Amino acid sequence: MTSFAWIGLIVIVAIAAFFIGSVWTKKHFKHSELEQQAQQAKHELEQYRQEVADHLASTKKLMGKMQDSYSQLLSHVEETNQVLLAEKPKHPSEPFFSKETTEQLHASLKSRPERRRNDRANEGFSQPTDYVDGESGLFSGERLEVEQSKAS
Question: Is 0.90 surpassed by the pTM of this model?
Fold first, then answer.
């Protein structure tokens, strides 16, 4: 073979080596890039897990505080309920009026129904107390004194 053939063969081998090297380098470069992305994703996942763990810990702490507050509220309500139930029998209900006033009210109430029955029986025979016989007031031209009957 001649030197021209050797040089042609070397050029063809060099071109083939260049293309093979570039393909291999691209695969290696993509592999390292993918490996870097995987490491970054693992780091972000670990960071997210830590944030979730911190959030759950703070939630647990808040739930504990809320449970304590609820327990205190429940015990307060139970104590108040016990106090109210215990106080009720100790203090008898006190009358609104004094004993004498209550007795007078009862006596007046006992007398009223009889008078009402008598008034109802005489309703058809007597004129109502708010009417006056004849002219009176502004229309009469004279001043008449009207006697008021005892209503109570």
Answer: no
